[in-house]
## 1
Amino acid sequence: MQMKPLVLAFVGDCVYELYIRNYLISEKYRDVNELHRKSVFFVKAKAQAYILRALEPELNDEERGIVRRGRNAHPHTVPKNAEVADYRQATAYEALIGYLYLSGSARLASILEKSVAIGRMRNE
């Protein structure tokens, strides 16, 4: 599948955000403000960059290629509250998630589960 990395990241952003929201609800968080605060912790660029750095040694060559393409993509904007390096890493992470989702890869579930575990360790 040959898609532009920013398109993969667009899809990956949605998939990851939905996964995190489902995870938080399954953890019995019910207050909307707390749900929002916890979800932002996982989905902000700095967190995604941290998660990707932890996951990279486990990625196969194809996944590393997707990450490289995502990291090298040139987004039109950068959020005002994110470092450029973190934002590029986060885009690479989202491109990986989008790629795994669109290709129907069984690795998606494993990568998402590991992502949550890494994010939780970062919070402790």
## 2
Amino acid sequence: MSLALAYARFKLLEIFRIPVSFFGVLCPPLIAVTFFVLPLNGDDPLVSTMVLGSMAVFGVVIICIMEYAADASQDRETPWYQYLRTLPAGPVPQFLGRVLFSLVMIVLSVGPAMIVGALFTEATASATQILAAAGVLVLAVVPFSLIGLAAGYAIPPKSAVAVGQLLFLPLAFGGGLFSDPYNLPGFIEVISPYLPTRGIGDLMWYSLGGPSPNPLALVMLVVWTVAMAAVAAWAYRRDEGRRYR
């Protein structure tokens, strides 16, 4: 665990030294709340609370997919990371360090957005609901970080950022994070349960007092997690084989 903590600290110091990257990661949830949630603020506390929950999930999605895809692809080209991969500790401490790094970034990113939402909307939640929602966000790190890692190790570094951008927006819209998830238009309603964002979204909304999750969406969330873990492991081994064998 000490290696994971050291790696997480290294990643935090690295991003803090690049203000553009730091604020580029932290600002999207706050911007989304400011421009999409506050102007449409209604009188229904449950709706306001669920919308803020959607924005929290959006923050996790963008941090995990964009950071992991860009970070993993760029790290592959750096001498320091290539040296780390030759050490006997293996990839597990680095992965755990990335997860810890993501959790810190999620707190720094989602926290201000939720504070603004709590102050200027009708959203309300009990302590139990807040803890449950926080648990959902921690759970969300796993599938979306695996999606980011799969992209980061499978795709050339110059393309990874673009692919990450192409991934998170369709996943966010298709999962119902930017609209009423129970009244989606046309084909989006058909494909929504098959996207990982819908499974996490359903858990988030349920934790805040919304309807029970769609069983199909939960099953597909597990399928996505297992599939992306397999793809990430395959891509990592393929990259390792190219460089060190």
